[in-house]
């Protein structure tokens, strides 16, 4: 891997004393997100040091192929000088100024324009925030204000799907359909209602993907009728559910769900925090699958993770109602932060100049999917799912599905084995998930799946 050589040449290796000291300080002072701290400090935290292309290096200086793009976000790959230069320039020119008080900055304007140019028809306005959670939280508030303004204040309930992940604020956790996220916090809040997601394997259903998808739509309709459409504001859906296990809907499923929402006057929100900016071989899944959402939320690939940034796009119809209603008291100190939006602009310029969306659509996406699906006949493969440059393998022990343990162990075990093989994947329940940078090469995809095949050879015995 060319990136490996480049990376190794610029590595500054940590000596054992430095590493031990950092691990001591980390244990003493640093609370990590989504972490079992006892487990973390037993093994010693990994201190990542450098990144170039699709490769990162850990505290030992060992190169690892990052098949998760950080956390589904480093779309243009690590070490892009264009983004670093744009950020450096902007910091010196104007490090910060708010977009409150009838003011804003040039990069915020230009990025909003560029995103609008790539968004589906009828969406031309962008509200900036700092994360996917804030983008969804913003969507929730815009929807509440919109329904109130159009004389429907009773429409406040929110529908989301099983296995959904929409963030970690109190409201967005309430939208997340994963018990590990909700139960410790006694969530969801009242008014957040879950409907099934299109994941027959996860629900241990014997129905085909198509039939299960149909049942999900029918069940959603029953829930809407039970709750009363007049009380329901919106349905949020990730086009491909990422953190829930890379759940790809059957063809036409989301469109059916969307139409159901339209018939019941329920807003349809596409959470494109993972799927936006090229992951599926389109700028947005909403355009790819003709979803005509009422709102889109985005983050991650908007800056490829170089700096935090989130955004919410309401349809022009919703934006018109909101902007005609006077002062809108919503926004964050860092909404439209000039340095984050400068990073976003440079990032989108790379995606355009290097035709990365087209590359996923017609080159590396299909290649990745072929390699992924070639593992379907492996005895450790329970189910394989994927679309574009995202995929997952639900794993099985030698004795088959009935022998899976509770709580699940195979995802974490397989991710640890993959790391030994030089590849970072995400372990979730009994599955591994992959979403590499869009710049990944065929050679790197070969390396990654050869490593995963070796992991699958070993995992049956866990
Ligand atoms: C689909 C989706 N929505 C929202 C979020 C929350 O984003 P953040 O972690 O930036 O708050 C995530 C994060 O993984 C996500 O995958």
List the helices and strands and how they pair.
Blueprint: H1 2-9, H2 16-29, H3 37-43, E1 50-52, E2 55-57, E3 63-66, H4 69-72, H5 81-93, H6 106-118, E4 127-129, H7 132-149, E5 157-161, H8 170-175, H9 179-182, E6 192-195, H10 209-227, E7 232-237, H11 253-263, E8 267-271, H12 285-288, E9 295-298, E10 310-314, H13 316-323, H14 338-353, H15 356-373, E11 381-387, E12 390-395, H16 410-420, E13 423-424, E14 426-428, E15 431-434, H17 442-459
Parallel strand pairs: 3-13, 5-6, 5-7, 7-8, 8-9
Antiparallel strand pairs: 1-2, 2-3, 4-10, 9-10, 11-12, 12-15, 14-15
Helix pairs in contact: 5-14, 6-14, 10-11, 15-17, 16-17
Strand fraction equals 5-15%
Q: Quick one: biggest sheet?
A: 7 strands, mixed
Total number of distinct structural domains: 2
What's the CATH first level of the largest domain? Alpha Beta
Bound molecules: pyridoxal-5'-phosphate
Could you give the count of β-strands?
A: 15
Which regions have little confidence, pLDDT < 50, spanning 5+ residues? none
* Approximate helicity band: 40-55%
Give the overall form.
globular
Structural class: alpha/beta
Radius of gyration: 22 Å
Mean pLDDT: 96
Distance between the termini: 31 Å
Give the neighbour order of strands across the main sheet: 4-10-9-8-7-5-6
How many helical stretches?
17
Q: Please identify which CATH superfamily of the largest domain we are dealing with.
A: Type I PLP-dependent aspartate aminotransferase-like (Major domain)
CATH architectural category of the largest domain: 3-Layer(aba) Sandwich
CATH topology of the largest domain: Aspartate Aminotransferase, domain 2
